[in-house]
Amino acid sequence: MEKSTMAQSKGTVVLAYSGGLDTSCILVWLKEQGYDVIAYLANIGQKEDFEAARKKALALGAKKVYIEDISREFVEEFIWPAVQANALYEDRYLLGTALARPCIARRQVEIAQREGAQHVAHGATGKGNDQVRFELTCYALCPKIKVVAPWRLPEFYQRFPGRRELMDYAKKHGIPVPVTPQTPWSMDENLMHISYEAGILENPKNQAPPGLYTKTRDPATSPDNPDVLEIKFERGVPVKVTNIGDGATRSSALELFVYLNDIAGKHGVGRIDIVENRFVGMKSRGIYETPAGTILYHAHLDIEAFTMDREVRKIKQGLALKFSELVYNGFWHSPECEFLRHCIRRSQEPVVGTVRLSVFKGQVYILGRESPRSLYNEELVSMNVQGDYEPADATGFININSLRLKEYHRLQSKVTVKQDE
Amino acid sequence: MEKSTMAQSKGTVVLAYSGGLDTSCILVWLKEQGYDVIAYLANIGQKEDFEAARKKALALGAKKVYIEDISREFVEEFIWPAVQANALYEDRYLLGTALARPCIARRQVEIAQREGAQHVAHGATGKGNDQVRFELTCYALCPKIKVVAPWRLPEFYQRFPGRRELMDYAKKHGIPVPVTPQTPWSMDENLMHISYEAGILENPKNQAPPGLYTKTRDPATSPDNPDVLEIKFERGVPVKVTNIGDGATRSSALELFVYLNDIAGKHGVGRIDIVENRFVGMKSRGIYETPAGTILYHAHLDIEAFTMDREVRKIKQGLALKFSELVYNGFWHSPECEFLRHCIRRSQEPVVGTVRLSVFKGQVYILGRESPRSLYNEELVSMNVQGDYEPADATGFININSLRLKEYHRLQSKVTVKQDE
Amino acid sequence: MEKSTMAQSKGTVVLAYSGGLDTSCILVWLKEQGYDVIAYLANIGQKEDFEAARKKALALGAKKVYIEDISREFVEEFIWPAVQANALYEDRYLLGTALARPCIARRQVEIAQREGAQHVAHGATGKGNDQVRFELTCYALCPKIKVVAPWRLPEFYQRFPGRRELMDYAKKHGIPVPVTPQTPWSMDENLMHISYEAGILENPKNQAPPGLYTKTRDPATSPDNPDVLEIKFERGVPVKVTNIGDGATRSSALELFVYLNDIAGKHGVGRIDIVENRFVGMKSRGIYETPAGTILYHAHLDIEAFTMDREVRKIKQGLALKFSELVYNGFWHSPECEFLRHCIRRSQEPVVGTVRLSVFKGQVYILGRESPRSLYNEELVSMNVQGDYEPADATGFININSLRLKEYHRLQSKVTVKQDE
Amino acid sequence: MEKSTMAQSKGTVVLAYSGGLDTSCILVWLKEQGYDVIAYLANIGQKEDFEAARKKALALGAKKVYIEDISREFVEEFIWPAVQANALYEDRYLLGTALARPCIARRQVEIAQREGAQHVAHGATGKGNDQVRFELTCYALCPKIKVVAPWRLPEFYQRFPGRRELMDYAKKHGIPVPVTPQTPWSMDENLMHISYEAGILENPKNQAPPGLYTKTRDPATSPDNPDVLEIKFERGVPVKVTNIGDGATRSSALELFVYLNDIAGKHGVGRIDIVENRFVGMKSRGIYETPAGTILYHAHLDIEAFTMDREVRKIKQGLALKFSELVYNGFWHSPECEFLRHCIRRSQEPVVGTVRLSVFKGQVYILGRESPRSLYNEELVSMNVQGDYEPADATGFININSLRLKEYHRLQSKVTVKQDE
Do residue A335 and residue C280 have CB atoms under 8 angstroms apart? Predict the structure, then answer.
């Protein structure tokens, strides 16, 4: 008889459950430790047999199972602010996982509160970002919550140093083990993106194997004709997509996003292979597919540049850089991130209009744009019409701007021994 | 008899001459105004019949003609620092024209000093950025120089309100007029890029016509097989390109850049259509092709992320944003831009290594990277090996990071009426 | 007979009139040029005989005179946002003049619109910041307005190269000339501050003469006992001042500010002598007195640090730096400055509480603070009580933070030839 | 017989020893745990009986005692870069303690390496910044070192929950206990500053008691005549101080700094009372005296503004903000802080010249400045001389700057329902 069955009850824990081997073992292990386990599986757009997962969790002894469809709030409350921000971590990563975590964890805390559970648990590793994103959300929304992170508990990670030990444990406890061979990398999917990392990808020189990608087609075999779309924005958020080719339209946030995923995926848009800096201080290599997110990044950048004042844009760009870093690091639910979202949202009031673009062979090409609120003034900028502009003014403008440079030159000339630049 | 022939000599002017209609008319007009004109034509990689231009200038009365090949210094002294910076104006524009201007104007000032000319002249318009970039360079390097900018002089621009008047003037003064019909947009080319703007492109909704592009092939008809390249960097600058397919290599800066232009152009890489904010305060629409620059942007971003410390990168990113803005606005030769170049160059010391990438159908795909100086630690990041890492430390890390968030929650709870975010 | 009397009417101009020699001469000169002149004198807290000025303007031929008390809106709409921002230009200047200009010019544009005047005029010099601040406000609020700036018109400034020519002109046109000898520097005063510059102060080495200061007493002769004040803030704005010594209180914005000016002036608080960088590109030397502004700067800094989250503060500090620069340069009425004011105002919602301070011998000493919304947690920070804090967590926090530094050290060790730092 | 003598040897530890009760108890406790203890006492300018401390440490069983005078390197290698940066944490704190920690810890690591010790130990608390500053330095310079931080070890801090238990332990182990009653706050002193915190100061409303200050005289009783000093800078660092009153001069870094401490202390300069944000996420209240540092902050700010280009200054200001935060948080020895020091040092090349200032009643007043490398141009800025400046240019400058504002106004007018700002 297992020692664990003797353990006194430690109360209820809400476990973020995926249905996979790791969290199935964790579920059983938590019970062993004396917890009542409520399994929580967020439907955030990943491909998954949710009913099978529910049955599995119950079979493994979950007291209760929550399967929550949070796709819509993921799009409207997490992805949209990121689109408004043109959020990009380290110039490349569209933050697909980082945006999903606070959305998933927020619901988990809500369930814990509803169920009177004192604990939440997750299966994130001890080296990654997700543990941080997960737990900072929990602590920010419910400071009294206790987090159980087995992969950081010596009694857990020393017992399961590798996959083999997990498999043994699973077999011993009647946990179904995967029948298909494991991919030599790990994946994490949601509506916005899928990530591939670890395993053979840990060597940053290794090229991604051909069959790895699942959300986008290979540009080499993608259609030979583009899809041309018009995306309409209001307050910096897409409100309508029209496919110029077949006239298809989508207007609700979730449907629109799913549609863009389809189109972008079909044309192989949104693949990147990067090395990034984790919050815990190490560099890691990740391969990501973000189909709809990539289209929206380009489209929003364009309509924003078209409608926003130059100097407001510059300030907003600085705020968005900070925002992206905070989201990556797990601080979505923090005073500073709230503050930034408020400021960025404010900046989006004039970001209204329609962008036309072509999706083709892995690329998004902007074709044109129009807006009822643009600051673009065709007459003013025209090479052929003078408009309300006095060319002679530019002389004064340049002369005054050169004043400082001339003074600097004067000083430099005085300094006989010039430093090597 | 023209009044101008009576004008007393105003001294010598060095005119930035392109061989086209505008600067040919300006050349003659400057002579009319009483200047001795030295024509200066910079070979900065554009496609041009330089000898024909020389003859034309002499025929129009230029006292002397300088045709200067500054391609190499353009690459080494201007493009390379931009590559190190990942320089991008408003998140999209790789600064092809902005980088060329200070290079062209610097040589022009040198010629003026060598020739004892008190004046320099150019044919840039009064609404654009180029006048600023041109003149700030001149004033910074030679504060006493006088600039003649005919397109800002009422006596000039009122005399030539449109192309027709220029044509009339040209015919009257024996200036050869173009035989091919003018494109309904204007172009500016150098080794790094070509820009298309004005004319029918002034309507930001108008799609670029199919035949517009000249430096890149249409991705729709580009090769069905990628070129795979390895680009080796030292101190953030490419020092060798190897084509994995055919083993071709290039090592000298200029040849390497030309080669990348060929490969990228062949695969349709580097096209953008944007609305940007000019320094003089108006929005303008431009279409650009930057083939080699686009490859290098992606490759450098990758090797930099691989080798540079996270926090150094963040600081450097801020400096590069400022650098890009300064370059766009014409402040290459300014104390602040010198300072930034110094700092950015310093940051590039560890940026050493090789990036492997694929060029295909308008896209650049990073495939892998390696470096003798990377901060990437495969063992540390491994999911399967613990390495020199204690998972339990992450618990303390997260707890301390959550402290501030918990305190904020405590405060928020005290505030009974919560503000709408 | 003057040629000017023949000039056809150029319409109406609203002149920012000070009552002094310069703007009196400008008033007459504008009439000479054919303008109908409306004199506008803003009461923004300076010491002035407004009625005498009104009579003088009418006597000189002003069609109408507006004397407008805008002190209250100056405090509430301009100084308060600066207090919220801790606005400081180049780390030292509290922006006393820069804040007043847009307030003055805004009213002037309103008068022009009410009177149907097409022009506004001012007596600011062509080298300074005030011309810019003045005119950017006018153009931003009324793009069609025409500005007449005599000190930038060659026909004016060449006619009046020095004070002597102005005096001659005044005598000739019956303009009263000052009877007291001119100070060998120029002054500009408003409710917030007084500036001294030009004349003997142009040599940056020259010490300010003893009798120069007018708004503050010499700390050497100021009282030997401090005044102790409590300043209460709401949303980052002072709402009540209490003098602990005599129990005096002030609550309305204007009265509170005037009272702080009195107290601070009595104790010699707020004097600085600086060299600053003007927007037009030159360095200038200014001596300023900002009594109440200096107290409020220190008090607000303290209550803000006490109540605002650390990371919000950091972001807000960056925004305020930009805000200060914009205000200095004259961009108060710009989209970016509006945006910043909105964001900064948002950040001030929790800035509530009371600061106690002592004003003595030129200094402001913070003595203590309290707030119903502070994030300060006495138990948490206590050295003697553990509170809700686990010291062991700090170990993990430090270890994870050191990870990146150790990796860097590892890399540095690999690089055999270390660069000189 | 003590249990500790039975413990097997854990190797050698270098303890940062202060001679006080805490670290004396720690010394004995470490021996109990089985360590060989080397006591290290840094002379960094604090008032201390170093020989008494040496004897005490030996008496308590230290294997060896190092008393290291690191004052000179503290000034030259740590304070000088901070002066160049105008380093200020959260707008107020001159970083006196934060600068000392990496200097102290660096020597400690050197001693550990020399002695072959695997461990270092310190007596910093688990809630503060010093533990972080200390340990990050150790790990950055010697990644393999082990840190023993008793105040974060449950077996230690649970054994000594309060001062009483420490006293008991001391008495039991023959550790001399302080004969003077403890101040109801804690202090930390070095050459640059002294801090007071904890105890009765933990209530942020409590005013500092009159007798608290030790490094500066009360301004109320300080001399009634100022000291006037001239401070000469080279590359942003003070190289000579001259007292205009008595002609005294100091030139070497350490002597100069000590002299400024004397003068500033005599006049009550450098006291602040603040609430600051610790790196671990809590707010704390501290009272600081930084006499010489305060004078140098003002003097350097002045000479820098006088000699540095406006735009370089702005960039450098941003870097210095980041630098200050890093220093506060303990990242002196990090790649990013190294990078920033390099950039800031570069910016200081033109910062050469002499500042004259007056020190009086708690204040530093700048009186004037001169420099062989100033960008100040007296003729250019003169109100009476036109110099090499064309006032008409300012018209064009303003007009072009207003273009964007006019366009924005045009847009706003189109938007019928204006948003409340």
Answer: no
Contact A295, A86 (CB under 8 A): no
Contacts of A347 in chain C (CB under 8 A): 339
Annotation says D393 is catalytic? no
Mean pLDDT (10-residue bins), chain A, 421 residues = 57 96 96 97 94 96 97 98 98 98 98 98 96 97 96 94 91 87 90 95 94 95 97 98 98 98 98 98 97 98 98 98 98 98 98 98 98 90 83 95 93 60 41
Beta bridge partners of residue C231, listed in sequence order: C241, C355
What is the Cα–Cα distance from B292 to B263, expressed in whole angstroms? Answer: 8
Contacts of B339 in chain D (CB under 8 A): 312, 315-316, 343, 346-347
C151, C26 contact by CB (below 8 A)? no
Burial of residue C148 (number of CB atoms within 10 Å: 0-12, 13-18, 19+)? buried
**In chain D, what residues touch B316 (CB-CB under 8 Å)?**
339
Integer Cα distance of D394 and D389 in angstroms:
9
Q: Which of A408-412, C111-115, C308-312, D251-255 has the lowest mean pLDDT?
A: A408-412
Q: How far apart are CA B99 and CA D411, in angstroms?
A: 32
Kindly report, residue by residue over B182-220, the tens digit of the pLDDT: 888 999 999 999 999 999 999 999 999 989 999 999 999
User: Which residue in A397, A399, A407 is closest to D375 by CB distance?
Assistant: A407
Q: How many C-beta atoms lie closer than 10 Å to residue C10's C-beta?
A: 15
Residues of C annotated as catalytic are 22, 101, 130, 186
Nearest-angstrom CA–CA distance, C388 and C380: 6
Yes or no: say if C79 and C99 are a contact pair by the CB < 8 Å rule.
Answer: yes
DSSP assignment of C102-169, as one string? HHHHHHHHHHHHHHT-SEEE----SSSSHHHHHHHHHHHH-TT-EEE-GGG-HHHHTT-SSHHHHHHH
Measured from the Cβ of residue D324, the count of other Cβ atoms closer than 10 Å reads 23
Write down all domains in chain B, each with its CATH number in brackets.
12-179 (3.40.50.620), 187-308+350-370 (3.90.1260.10)
Read off the pLDDT of residues B402-414 as tens digits, 9 standing for 90 and up.
999 999 998 887 7
D401's tokens:
């700057």
Residues from chain D that touch C280, judged by Cβ atoms under 8 A, are 394, 397
- Distance separating alpha carbons of residues D285 and A262, to the nearest angstrom: 56
pTM of the complete model: 0.96
Q: Kindly determine whether residue C311 and residue B404, on different chains, have CB atoms separated by under 8 Å.
A: yes
Residue B290: C-alpha distances to residues A361, B129, B355, D146 (Å): 19, 19, 20, 52
Of the CA atoms within 13 Å of residue D156, those in its CB half-sphere come to 23
Partner-chain residue, chosen from B91, B152, B377, that has the shortest CB–CB distance to A282: B377
Q: In terms of CA atoms, which chain B residue is nearest residue A151?
A: B391
Active-site residues of B, by number, are 22, 101, 130, 186
Least confident of A290-304, A407-421, C210-224, D296-310: A407-421
- Using a CB–CB cut-off of 8 Å, the residues of B that contact D are 280-282, 309, 311-312, 314-316, 318-319, 322, 331, 334-336, 339-340, 342-343, 346-347, 400-401, 403-404, 407
User: Quick one: DSSP state of residue A74?
Assistant: I
Q: Do residue C407 and residue B349 have CB atoms under 8 angstroms apart?
A: no
Q: How far A336 CA sits from the closest chain D CA (Å)?
A: 13
Catalytic residue among D54, D101, D341, D369: D101
Query: In this predicted complex, what is the ipTM?
Result: 0.95
